[in-house]
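Input/output pair, single chain:
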Amino acid sequence: MNPHAGLAGAARKFVRKLGYDVVHHLDFGLLLRELEIDLLIDVGANIGQAYDKFRLAGFRGPIVSFEPHPACFAHLKSRPDKFGNWSRLNIAVGLKDAEQTLYFGPTPDQTSLLTGMDDPSKGSLSVHVRSLESLWPELGFDRYRRVFLKTDAEGFDFQILQGAKKYFDRIAGGMMESRPVPEYDNESPMTEVLAYLSAHGFEVCRVDADTVLPTTGICSNFNVTFCQRNLLLKLKPAV
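Output:
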């Protein structure tokens, strides 16, 4: 018997209390096709893992990736663009346009605009943060009808989402990281994130276990996939 089974189940029980369940696989290709997504925004692209995932799932539309970490962006920019419609921008995205500090963590994928997991020995960087509301018209996102927003920003995902509020009518769906217990300073807990999504016309359609602690079996980090409520009601038989 797995000694961690009970602890692993604790995370599932937490999510179930909120009316959802934990799953480990999601057919992104089917989801994007059913939602008729014509633009994918990838915030916190790192070295392009999400790009690979969505291309493998069959998405051939334009992808705009944002990555503020200099080394990660250099690698991201060097990668080939097979379909000729992958834009990569060395920009930090957040709640509003402002100067902020980007803190480097133990590894490049733990870089965040929040403190708490930063490693002083790795240093930090002053960056000009932009909100999606200000970037939207500047980058021509207005010409797209249905956008999918993916964020992976180490505790900053909720602020990125809030910074796109003006264009929620264009965001057909999205996927963001969220934690039941925040790891970063000023990170919003999962309960607050889910309540905000519901209050603004979105419904959670999948909750995926992302990070499972090997010592306890507890899931400390989830990927939350959400869709516009009116679209999800139409898609229920298919998704």
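Residues 1-8 have pLDDT under 50 and may be disordered. The radius of gyration is 17 Å.
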